[in-house]
Amino acid sequence: MEIKHTDNEAKGVFYIEKEGERVAEMTYLHEKPNKIIIDHTEVSETLKGKGVGYKLIEASVQYMRDNNLKVNPTCSFAKAIFDKKHEEYSDVLS
C-alpha cells in the first residue's frame, strides 16, 4: 500500500488510494511555519484494524523529522497514538 502526500503550505494530507478511490487519510493544518496540527484521520471499513491509520501517522512523523516540524495532534486517533508512543515521538511533539 503506497502512502501518498500532498501539501499546499496551508494544509496537507497523507492518504492511500485503491482503484482511484481514497480509502484512508490523515489531514493536517499548518499552524506556524514549523508546526502542524493533525486534525483528522479516517480509514475505510475494509481497512480498519489492519494498522493503516498507524502507517499514516508513521509517514507523517517521518515527514516532520525530515522537515524539522513539530505537531499538535488534535484528532483523537492521532492523539492516542502520540500518547502511546510518547518517548518514540517526543522529538516531534510540540
UniProtKB/TrEMBL annotation:
Signal peptide: none annotated. It comes from the Bacteria. Pfam families: Acetyltransf_CG. PROSITE patterns: GNAT, GNAT_YJDJ. Residues 1-94, 6-94 form the N-acetyltransferase domain. One of its GO terms (molecular function) is acyltransferase activity, transferring groups other than amino-acyl groups. PANTHER family: BSR4717 PROTEIN (PTHR31435:SF10), PROTEIN NATD1 (PTHR31435). This is Uncharacterized protein.
